[in-house]
């Protein structure tokens, strides 16, 4: 008997019909002889709607109360799905994140998992029940308060449970048929990827591909959890994310033995650019700046430091970070302005990040030239550049991001003949 963890996103459970469709698939999985644990997100745009509602009441909601509010969306989904499964004649029991043993630190809004103790989940599935868990949430052992894991936290919940329960696979269900070479909403002719390494998927998730959350991929890679990305709206095979490059892959006759140069193009609109202007060009100032930002619990992505103008003794340091972290980081830096000795701060939310990902690029010359030539021909100017062994990322004007995605996607021959199908979801 296999143990399968299935995670269904908000677009899959957006209404009663969607919940019935998910319930049918879950029951079919159990009827095939498997033990099943299900993790659900909030219905449709519920989380965004709750954020909007809170914003109409206050501009500075207490973090603890925001977690109490936002965690309610997943609890609604889990209870409704349990009812739908019961209606089909199967036995199901729903659990909140804390009941499922998801123990986190005490940081509200972006809590991190520190322990997983799914005793009640194990008991339920051993009794032949389908266990349904509210994703995105846990409980702080320190404060005994409800916490949320941040955007994409339901993916992380599913992988954490799969790892602790030694599941055979963690299936991530969404509103497209798998991982594509680009977001089909932006590049309609994007092609589905059948298999992708966890390293490449990690870069794509970090670069803005919303199909899987970064923390989910990191967790799966660390604990060797196989991920299977599929659509809850179809029976197509989907995409396998291989947790280890040494995993054995069955090569069908006629398939190329070497992996393609490029796996895909990712983009991200959720970051802002910060430029600290007039920083004293002496050792230790960069460490001081990034220590302040880290103290504000802000994650930094790309970093560029300019060469100081001759004789000025000062330099500029630019970096990107999530927009949701922007205010806290700027406030912390301004509070330390006299201490650090910089002149001013420029803050820009109207940026977009574009990334080209592929493990094959490290052994193929000319990739960078083709990438930048495509952007040049599309009239896209570049503000920042960052690279890794299997990724090239640039920051550009947000208004040009869609154009840039389609230009690079086409330049590397990733366009397919048919348009990809997006079954549901608003992309909000």
TrEMBL record:
Alphabetical GO biological process terms: diaminopimelate biosynthetic process; homoserine biosynthetic process; lysine biosynthetic process via diaminopimelate; threonine biosynthetic process
Keywords, in A-Z order: Amino-acid biosynthesis, ATP-binding, Diaminopimelate biosynthesis, Kinase, Lysine biosynthesis, Nucleotide-binding, Transferase
List of residues binding substrate: 47, 74
Domain of life: Bacteria
Pathway it works in: Amino-acid biosynthesis; L-methionine biosynthesis via de novo pathway; L-homoserine from L-aspartate: step 1/3; Amino-acid biosynthesis; L-threonine biosynthesis; L-threonine from L-aspartate: step 1/5; Amino-acid biosynthesis; L-lysine biosynthesis via DAP pathway; (S)-tetrahydrodipicolinate from L-aspartate: step 1/4
Catalysed reaction, written as an equation: L-aspartate + ATP = 4-phospho-L-aspartate + ADP
Residues at which ATP binds: 7-10, 174-175, 180, 185
Pfam families attached to this UniProt entry: AA_kinase, ACT_9
Record domain ACT: where: 274-359
A GO-annotated cellular component: cytosol
GO molecular function term, any single one: aspartate kinase activity
Record keyword Ribonucleoprotein present: no
EC number: 2.7.2.4
Role noted for this protein: Catalyzes the phosphorylation of the beta-carboxyl group of aspartic acid with ATP to yield 4-phospho-L-aspartate, which is involved in the branched biosynthetic pathway leading to the biosynthesis of amino acids lysine, threonine, isoleucine and methionine.
Family designation: Belongs to the aspartokinase family.
Name the record gives this protein: Aspartokinase
Species this chain originates from: Arthrobacter saudimassiliensis
